[in-house]
Amino acid sequence: MIDRIRQKAEQYYPEVQAIRHHIHSHPELSFQEFETSKFIAGKLKEWGIEHQTGVAGTGIVGLIKGKNPEKRCIALRADMDALPILEANTISYKSQNDGVMHACGHDVHSSCLLGAARILNDLRDEWEGTVKLIFQPGEEKHPGGASLMIKDGVLENPKPDAIFALHVYPHLPVGTTGFRAGQYMASADEIYITIEGKGGHAALPQQTVDPIAIAAQVITGLQQVISRKGNPLIPSVLTFGKIAGGFATNVIPDKVEILGTFRTMDEKWRYEAHKWIKDFTEQTCAAYGAKATIEIPAGYPSLFNDPALTAKAEGWAKEYVGAANVHTLDMRMAGEDFSFYTHHVPGCFFRIGTNKDNKEFLAPVHNAHFDINEEALKVGVGMMAWMVMAQ
Ligand code: NI
Description:
The chain is of the alpha/beta class. The protein has helices at residues 2-11, 13-25, 34-46, 106-122, 145-151, 211-229, 267-287, 307-321, 339-342, 375-389, and strands at residues 50-55, 59-65, 73-79, 130-136, 162-173, 177-179, 182-185, 187-196, 200-201, 236-244, 251-252, 255-264, 291-295, 303-305, 326-328, 347-355.
């Protein structure tokens, strides 16, 4: 069976590559994937694959029934959105939408899922169960297309027994895959703090409430809060990426804004930390006579790869790409909205290598020079199909 999948992945490669080039050259921002969605739906229609459009806006849910369709349901997910980056590559399929770029490989994910769908549809008399194809919007943007697809019922009728997604990975060579069982990626919550003091002359601090001095205390103090209140065995990171306030050397401003992100690998500690961040900031500001407003809207949860499912998937990957080409991944403090699915059904989010012999295509994701060695499309298409048929 593996040989037949490989053969078909090879046969459909030119078309999958053309699909990828089309999506890559017509990137659309999160939740605005209108043309991308139409294009994908058009392919499913052309191949006679049953699907529903307009799920959570631009999302698409397809179904392919094998033998005994009731036996199990396996969901395969791809994201469709691009990033607000001006592409710096000089390739024939460069972005035609200036300032928008598929710099996180979501064009690749959608193309691989289409290719796998075609193979699974061709071979539908040779595997059991139902496959649910999920093309989702807005992976890159709060509140995450995955959370909206779930609200719209993507995990019901039929409810998947397992869900898989792949992601490009420029840190591994093409032909390889990467897995990590258990906690893999972090929760990611944004933090918005405003410290309101009382402005005045820099020479007369006693007549002011200096929000800049207080902000300095808050920023350094919060690092201490995270390191002293968090279990050192749970990875956590608190980063402030923006601080804004003030006008001149000799003026104390009225207020300072601080923006940041908190990430961790434990859902209980995640919310405890939010409370510590709020309490510490409020109380520190109050001690100096300032007022603090803190908002920490819940972002993506941490991504948990079901250990049993991941062990099986790793086994299938070893069969498909060879044991030497299956790597164990390190945890990452980045976020990924596939995590929402993993809190409802057993999930496995894995990587496919996209660089060439560690020499080319090394630009990281979210970089204006990002691109892949397209041989990886064959691996992505084949792996997705095999994960369904190997069950
Ligand atoms: Ni991504």
